[in-house]
Design brief:
The protein is mainly β and 176 residues long. It has a single domain, classed as Calycin beta-barrel core domain (Lipocalin, Beta Barrel), CATH 2.40.128. It contains 1 helix and 10 strands. The chain has one helix at 2-21, and strands at 37-43, 52-61, 66-73, 78-87, 92-99, 104-112, 115-123, 131-138, 144-152, 155-166. The protein has a 10-stranded antiparallel barrel with strand order 1-2-3-4-5-6-7-8-9-10. A hairpin with an 8-residue loop joins strand 1 and strand 2. The protein is globular, with a radius of gyration of 18 Å.
Length: 176
């Protein structure tokens, strides 16, 4: 039994190593500081009375041709999944973000001056923000800083601002 278990563990380790060995598409390399890490941050959305905890995990998928991000707020109260890929026609990284809230977004990401600039259009809902802009930057101390704005009723307003730290013990959860 012990030999069988050792074999299974060794095989799992080899498979995991092979999955991590996939090289990132060079056109997605701006996302590489995020990949393979789980980030935990506390957000204080405008008007909120308490902070919310956001956990995000980034990983390579599709043999390195895409980056997948999953996240959850407050252990699954809300969450989503994003797939980032290169679009030859747009000459840009594009992404789609699907949410447990029933809406989704489509957007573009551009590296700019040591940061990642995101611009997305909200789809699948007639209420709430119509567009979101965000800037993400990995700081010299290793934290991730994210600041957003949203367009609602024709006016841009400040969204959330958060600082994330790598937390290997944090887990992205979705409620059943």
């Amino acid at each position: 039994m012990r030999t069988r278990m050792s074999f299974v563990l060794a095989a799992a380790t080899l498979v995991a190593g092979a999955l991590q060995a996939a090289e990132i598409d060079p056109r997605l390399v701006a996302l590489s500081p995020l990949v393979g890490k789980t980030w935990r941050g506390e957000l204080q959305p405008p008007g909120a009375t308490k902070a919310v905890v956001d956990v995000q995990r980034f990983e390579l998928t599709l043999n390195g041709r895409a980056v997948r991000s999953v996240h959850s707020i407050n252990d699954g109260e809300y969450g989503g999944e994003t797939l980032f890929v290169w679009d030859d026609e747009k000459k840009s990284v594009v992404y789609t973000y699907f949410t447990t809230g029933g809406f989704y977004t489509t957007g573009t990401m551009q590296p700019e001056a040591g940061a990642l600039q995101f611009h997305e259009l909200v789809r699948g809902t007639t209420s709430g923000p119509r567009e979101v802009k965000a800037t993400s930057r990995v700081l010299p101390d290793g934290r991730l800083h994210v600041k957003s704005q949203y367009l609602k009723d024709g006016t841009w307003a400040d969204g959330h601002e958060a600082y994330y730290a790598v937390d290997p013990k944090a887990v992205v959860r979705f409620k059943d």
